[in-house]
């Protein structure tokens, strides 16, 4: 049951998320029977994504027929086209995990009002974990108020991420980011569902998160969870207007600042000077890793 003190729009979103969750849980009992198609290499969609999305949209538009819809699978074809209220939906974040029976996936629903996220629900159907947030009213897991972690030393911190997996993703840049960051942390994790990654930063289970290539429906709900739990969220250079930048970084305020310091130079929004310095350091490290004609390591 939704808590009676929740915002009415959150109650409707919770109802929608639970309807999608029950479809996902039923399908998870026989994941081999799920029909899978490929949007592009390593980017999958199933009939479960589509059924869950349809259930969410029907629930939302029954309550709010004048609202707009922006959903991962059906885009903007449903709902009002010119509403200031737009529901941003990912019906099954972590589809690749789901089709393998790896139980890390969720439903993500956010409401943007005039472009700003004001309501958020993330539902993990395999754990029955319900994350909710309303702008200005805090973030909750089930009925427990969430706060980001208090860790301030990066070497004690657990950071989650998402690896690039699509053709055209910048794998070398990502490997450089990991090489730079990993030795400075207590560990790097790649659970495989960005919305849950952000919810876990809000809950303090991880201390920070970063990923490139994300779409608005991946991060809309989770970004409000983080800020309502006292954290910060933005792109890799720390700019808060990140929703359509395809870069997302989050953390408690102290960790976030340190992540910007380490990863900001890898951002596509980094300054020309930072990009030039990064290119130079890459050339230097490539030279030091080269092998001389006599077979000894070069670069000196």
TrEMBL record:
Instruction: Write down the chemical reaction(s) this protein catalyses.
Output: a myo-inositol phosphate + H2O = myo-inositol + phosphate
Specify which residues bind Mg(2+) 1 according to the UniProt entry for this protein.
Answer: 72, 92, 218
Keywords, sorted A to Z: Hydrolase, Magnesium, Metal-binding
Superkingdom of origin organism: Bacteria
Which BP terms does GO give this entry? inositol metabolic process; phosphatidylinositol phosphate biosynthetic process; signal transduction
Q: What is its EC number?
A: 3.1.3.25
**InterPro entries for the chain:** IMPase, Inositol_monoP_metal-BS, Inositol_monophosphatase-like, Inositol_monophosphatase_CS, Inositol_monophosphatase_SuhB
* Name of the featured protein: Inositol-1-monophosphatase
């Amino acid at each position: 049951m939704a808590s009676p003190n929740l915002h009415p729009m959150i109650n409707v979103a919770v109802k929608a998320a639970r309807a999608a969750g029950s479809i996902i849980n039923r399908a998870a009992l026989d994941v081999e029977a799920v029909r899978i198609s490929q949007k592009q290499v390593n980017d999958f969609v199933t009939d479960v994504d589509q059924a869950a999305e349809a259930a969410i949209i029907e629930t939302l538009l029954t309550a709010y027929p004048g609202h707009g819809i922006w959903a991962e699978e059906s885009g903007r074809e449903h709902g009002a086209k010119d509403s200031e209220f737009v529901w941003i939906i990912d019906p099954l974040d972590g589809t690749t995990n789901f089709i393998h029976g790896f139980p890390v996936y969720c439903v993500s629903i956010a409401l943007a009002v005039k472009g700003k996220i004001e309501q958020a629900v993330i539902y993990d159907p395999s754990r029955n974990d319900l994350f909710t947030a309303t702008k200005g009213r805090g973030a909750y897991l089930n009925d427990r108020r969430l706060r980001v972690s208090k860790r301030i030393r990066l070497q004690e911190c657990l950071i989650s991420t998402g690896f690039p997996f699509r053709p055209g993703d910048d794998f070398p840049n990502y490997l450089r980011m990991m090489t730079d960051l990993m030795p400075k942390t207590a560990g790097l994790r790649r659970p495989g569902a960005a919305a849950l990654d952000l919810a876990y930063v809000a809950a303090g289970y991880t201390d920070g998160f970063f990923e490139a290539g994300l779409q608005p429906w991946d991060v809309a709900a989770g970004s409000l969870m983080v800020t309502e739990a006292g954290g910060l969220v933005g792109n890799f250079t720390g700019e808060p207007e990140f929703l359509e930048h395809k870069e997302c970084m989050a953390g408690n305020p102290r960790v976030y600042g340190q992540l910007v310091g380490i990863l900001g130079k890898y951002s596509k929004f980094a300054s020309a000077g930072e990009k030039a310095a990064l290119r130079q350091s890459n050339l230097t490290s490539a030279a030091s890793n080269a092998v001389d004609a006599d077979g000894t390591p070069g670069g000196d």
